[in-house]
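Q: What would this chain look like folded?
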Amino acid sequence: MTPLPEFLTFVAVGAFAQLVDGALGMAYGVASAAMLLGLGLPPAAASASVHYAETFTCGASGLSHLAAGNVRRRLFWALVVPGVVGATLGVYVVSHVPADWMRLALTPYLLGMGLFLLLRGRRSGRQPDDHVPRATRPLGLLAGFADAVAGGGWSALTVTTLVARGATPRTVIGTVHLAKCVVSAAASAGFLWHVGATHGLAVLGLIVGGVLAAPLGALFARRMPARAATLLAAIAVLGLGLNNVLKALH
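A: My prediction, written as structure tokens:
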């Protein structure tokens, strides 16, 4: 494949992944990392490339959510500080622990949380819009670590857990995206130190596609009913968990 068609392919993948991610609050890192791994990149290089791109795409998406009124300050700080710590640790570990191990470790959680959300989506009870659920800081630490190791997982862990604990999906999605920008920047700095700047064409394509699609994702999140967002998040998480199971069986 010549450079221009290859670049446009990465742009299309980045746009699609960001559109889904902006509406559901997850899937950009997972989709992008899966594509890069499918092209034969080592796990560390794939995770590094995704985080380089996410520093920009999540920044655009996070600012769009901020402008749309989807971000809550207390929840943001409760996630971002431990998230940065976890991501920094994860960048170091990814050089020594296979990423597939982390995906397998997360699979039971994803399946269980997806089923829990699927059932909870039938209920309408929610906490106040500025509510910070319990154990949010340990969640940020775990999610930042897992995301750096596996190339994705920050949104799947944080969004599903926070929504399951009663937080409003719209504000969770917006706040998680803005926090993800800072966490990705911290992970990118670590990857630059350990891995270096690699696969620039893929990174640039993912950035361009993601930035172009970010405003639409924020609008989808604002207009989507809370119950519908919860059910879609449940389906997405179940899909991620089942995908991990299928990979483990091969």
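The CA atoms of residues 188 and 233 lie 27 Å apart.
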